[in-house]
Amino acid sequence: MSDNDKRIRLEDVSKLWAGVPAVDHATFAVAPGEFVILLGPSGCGKSTTLRMIAGLEPASGGRIFIGERDVTPLAPGERGISMVFQSYALFPHLSVADNIVFGLRSRKVAKDERRERLDRVAALVGLTEYLARKPAQLSGGQRQRVALARAIISEHPICLMDEPLSNLDARLRGEMRREIKSLQRRLGMTVIYVTHDQVEAMSMGDRVILMQQGRIIQEGTPSELYNAPATAFAASFIGSPAMNLVPLAAAADGAVIDGEPHCSVASHAAKGHLLGVRPEAIHLAPGDAPGVPAEVLDAEYLGADTIVRLQVGSQTLRARQPGVAELRPGAACRLQWAPGEAHFFDGESGQRLDLAGHDVATSRRHANPGEALAVPFPHRTHPPGVNP
Amino acid sequence: MANRASDRRLQIYGALLLLPAAVLLGTFAYLPTVATLVNSLFLPGFRGAPPEFVGLENYALLIEDRTFWQVARNNLLYALGTIPTAIALALGMALFVNGRLPGRGLVRMAYFTPTVLPMIAAANIWMFFYAPQIGLFNKLLGTLGIAGPNWLGDPAVALTSVIVMTVWKEAGFFMIFYLAALQSIPPELEEAASLEGTGRWSFFWRVTFPLLMPTTLFVLINALINAVRVVDHLFILTKGGPNNATNLLLYYVYENAFSFFDRTYAATITVVILLVLAVVATIKFRVLDRRTHYQ
Questions:
Q1: Is residue B172 part of a domain?
Q2: What part of A 154-193 touches B (C-beta under 8 Å)?
């Protein structure tokens, strides 16, 4: 099987439901052996996109290619793909073995070969002892494995997965994430994986395609999405807790966080737009250190780290601190972050702006807030906090 | 000790909860059954004389009764003629209206209409279909130049005519059960199968039909009970005639009890019907249950 069969290309694919676009001119390509994540909140069109690739839903417009073939008019069975459903879609009246070889029987594969492939795949996913059971007698994780086995045994070069882990508990989910990823690598499958869980997207994907309201917002490696989100939506969707997004107001010496007029965080060009800082990029400094003045609201202890909620002007920010944060609610402190950690987004469209933030940590002029407006702020230039 | 006392109280509590249903069932199901069984062992007393205990004499009489055997044979033919056809039709209609179809609600309603009609009304409609000269069927056949049979008057055709009407009436009823069962089958199953290139026909036999087995079993038992429960449309259509050609078991029971006033003989036939039904239902459950998947 040539690698070319594993390539998927969507050109301008749309899906309209009663005239309303669910998928709006989606164009992307998936390279052979790549693990691509379609990420987005529910209703963003990611599942519809996947179902159009599978052929379960006809596309309203555009073309879908698998390899060099235009598969847009083809039936699902002719596209050479397998799929894992969120509900697993196991046949409840058939044993695990019959479930796994269901497709092989449809394709009239000889009995001996069926047997042999079944043994191989069952061993691969660890189901050898359960082949005689019915799906109802299996745990959620085992059912998931049956669904995977059914997709693998077909030896199709492409596997589509529609939120396959969302019915599992958190611990099992982590385990299956690793298993799916390692299976995909071992078998060299091309996988398109739909999820709304950014953790799954970040940990499994070679590349992530982020969708919102039927449109592709950003496409890139997990670290590209994390380090340089293309829009405020992308910024808030990836990372947990979400990136802090606060509106900037104008002050004498630059843009300041709304309600906190003393410490400018960027040049005048940023006013009216949004500042984004990841919670893990914020460093809490003592109240007399330089930085953005803040007041501790509360702290959520998570074991390895603590999420501290802070009041800055009229805004609430969250900061992730390692270990236990020794901060009482009401305590005053200063926030610092590296200039490259500040992201700016257009206040209207949410698009990323090519602006640089001020270095809030080295600015000395906040020791005495009363003088803040009297001393002119030396304008500094930073390389843009984009694409390090 | 305290434990045992509270245990007993719980048991009494449970028994009391069961009591209303038990009283109703006892009064209207089990007591009449036992009374029927007892009745079948007597001969009716004439002119105020008490009934006479005769043991199994009524049963011996039944075995000799040629009319009974004809009626039993009629009923068997009737069951064989109605049950498979009605079920197959019901399944076909359910599959049809379960699909994407313009005016689906209307079609569903149309299929269900015969079931909603009271039996007597339906039989009256069919009387006009079957009437020898002015009936719909013979009029239609007449335009083609064919002289139609006397649908209800010819002993060779009459039973078939009754069967056709029953299928028309029952299929819509069974369709509702199949439709409900079909809608409980997740659509992903068909999607998963279609991704593997499974044809519709193959999917039906390998997935849909096995998953409908509990419904089929339920419908089968119901259809069987219905087949020996026929009184009302015989009343309108044929009165069991001509020459008992369409007489069925329950109608024969009715005739014996209320036309010939032989209550104990009617009781005897009833006991036999109950026995046969019990045996057939047991066999069905035994054989089909093993092959049935319950979710």
A1: yes
A2: 154
Taking the C-alpha atoms of residue B257 and residue B275, their distance in angstroms, rounded to an integer, is 19
Whether B71 maps to a domain, the answer reads yes
**Owning domain of residue B285:** 64-290
**A89, A105, A107 ranked by CB distance to B186: nearest:** A89
Residue bearing the bigger pLDDT, B58 or B171: B171
What would the two tokens of residue A178 be? 């690793």
Q: What angle do CA B265, B30, B59 make, to 5 degrees?
A: 25
Among A263, A269, A330, A262, smallest CA distance to A295 is for A330
Tokens standing for residue B204: 């039906």
* CATH architecture label of A237-371: Beta Barrel (2.40)
Give me the residue from A55, A91, A134 closest to B207, CB to CB. A91
- Tell me the residues of B at the A interface, defined by beta carbons under 8 Å apart: 186, 188-189, 191-199, 202, 206-207, 210-211, 213, 293, 295
Is A83 at the interface with chain B, CB within 8 A? yes
Residue B15's pLDDT is 93
What does the alpha-carbon distance between residue A15 and residue A25 come to, in Å, rounded to a whole number? 8
pLDDT in tens, B2-21: 677 888 999 999 999 999 99
Q: Which residue out of A48, A51, A53, A56 would a mutagenesis test of the B interface target, given it has the greatest number of B Cβ atoms within 10 Å?
A: A56
* E strand intervals along A278-383: 283-285, 292-301, 305-312, 315-322, 332-336, 343-345, 352-353
Rounded to 5 degrees, φ, ψ at A219 are: -140, 125
Residue type, A131: L
A65 to chain B, any CB pair closer than 8 A? The answer is no
DSSP code for B51: P
Nearest to B108 by CA among B87, B94, B122: B94
Q: B284 near B217, Cβ under 8 Å?
A: yes
Give per-10-residue mean pLDDT for chain A (388 aa).
76 90 91 93 91 92 90 90 91 92 90 92 89 90 91 90 88 88 90 92 92 92 92 90 90 84 84 91 88 90 90 91 84 89 90 85 50 38 40
Using only C-alpha atoms, what is the Rg of chain B?
A: 24
A3-233 CATH fold:
Rossmann fold (3.40.50)
